[in-house]
Specification:
Layout: E1 2-8, H1 12-23, E2 32-38, H2 46-49, E3 55-59, H3 65-75, E4 80-84, E5 89-90, H4 94-104, E6 110-118, H5 127-135, H6 139-146, E7 153-157, H7 158-164, H8 174-184, E8 189-200, H9 205-223, H10 229-242, H11 248-253, H12 259-285
Parallel strand pairs: 1-2, 1-4, 2-3, 6-8
Antiparallel strand pairs: 4-7, 5-8, 6-7
GO molecular function, one term: glycosyltransferase activity
Pfam families: Glycos_transf_2
Domain Glycosyltransferase 2-like: 3-154
């Protein structure tokens, strides 16, 4: 059995879409259960979950997707745990890809897949959709070069999850830490390109800025542990400010965009976000960190 675990917080419409996509999975031969773990929503998604016989709804009062996933894992009956986020939509062959990979590679302990942007109108993407189609969720790079994958598209053998241990709490990038911990224990994550989920783009620039505020806060905490951190951080900020021109080839050849308009919008997006990131990093180097937060996981 495969146990699908979904942390949820105040995203009932997205959850309904995601559960419908899971109900419509193709070519999967194993039975599967779905465990939705609500993490303190204004209203529990009871009616949405009750539409499906194989969905169990739990409540985790400890905030954060990590504790929510952990509770789901403790209640799971499957020998494979498949983690997906409430705002993600699984491609029709998502579960079949997980099943096929573990059956064909019995020595593989955990896998991560491709995360693509769910464009509302692929013929006319917004600037944010075009930008994130190219630059968000570089899962293949994270898996093959850095040894971790995102918690929104992760599958692991249950016994391996028990060995590695729980995800950590809200004040850390819990999926990154868990993946690196698994790798350090010898459980290497493998990339499975046919394991595809779709993630909606952020709705506006403010949401993108919030995402980068969180990443900047995490990175700053890490670099401060070393010597000469301020100089190294400033150099990194200047490199970010100078980087958009180097992205022209990537945007030009990307297979996730169609047409000149979409590629132009992606270029505008990368200039805007790199300018924001670089100036925010410089402000942090000068001690202006009061606007930063790493304590929210819900983007809504």
């Amino acid at each position: 059995m495969i146990s699908v675990i979904i942390p949820h917080l105040n995203q009932p419409e997205a959850l309904a879409t995601g559960l419908a996509a899971l109900a419509a999975q193709e070519r999967v031969s194993r039975p599967f259960e779905i465990i939705v773990v609500d993490n303190g929503s204004h209203a529990m998604p009871e009616e949405i979950c009750a539409r499906y016989d194989n969905v169990t709804l739990l409540h985790q009062p400890v905030p954060g997707p990590g504790p929510a996933r952990n509770l789901g894992a403790t209640q799971a009956k499957g020998d494979i745990l498949a983690f997906i986020d409430a705002d993600c939509v699984a491609a029709p062959g998502w579960l079949a890809a997980i099943e096929d990979h573990f059956e064909s590679a019995p020595d593989d302990a955990l896998i991560g897949g491709d995360v693509r942007i769910l464009q509302r109108n692929p013929q006319r993407p917004t600037m944010i959709e075009a930008y994130e189609s190219v630059f968000a969720f570089r899962m293949k790079k994270y898996i093959e070069e850095r040894g971790f994958t995102g918690g929104g598209n992760l599958a692991v053998r249950t016994w391996v999850f028990r060995k590695v241990g729980d995800f950590l709490g809200i004040n850390i990038a819990e999926d990154t830490e868990w993946g690196l911990r698994a790798s350090s224990m010898g459980y290497r994550v493998r990339y499975e390109p046919t394991m595809v989920v779709y993630h909606p783009a952020r709705r506006n620039f403010a949401e993108l800025a919030t995402k980068w505020d969180r990443h900047i806060a995490h990175d700053l905490d890490e670099i401060k542990r070393g010597v000469n951190w301020r100089s190294r951080w400033t150099l990194r900020a200047l490199a970010v400010l100078a980087s958009p021109l180097a992205e022209i080839p990537r945007i030009t050849v990307s297979d996730r965009l169609r047409g000149v308009r979409a590629r132009g919008l992606a270029m505008v997006g990368v200039v805007c976000i790199r300018l924001y990131r670089g100036t925010s990093m410089l402000a942090a180097a000068m001690g202006n960190e009061n606007a930063r937060t790493a304590a929210r996981w819900n983007r809504s």
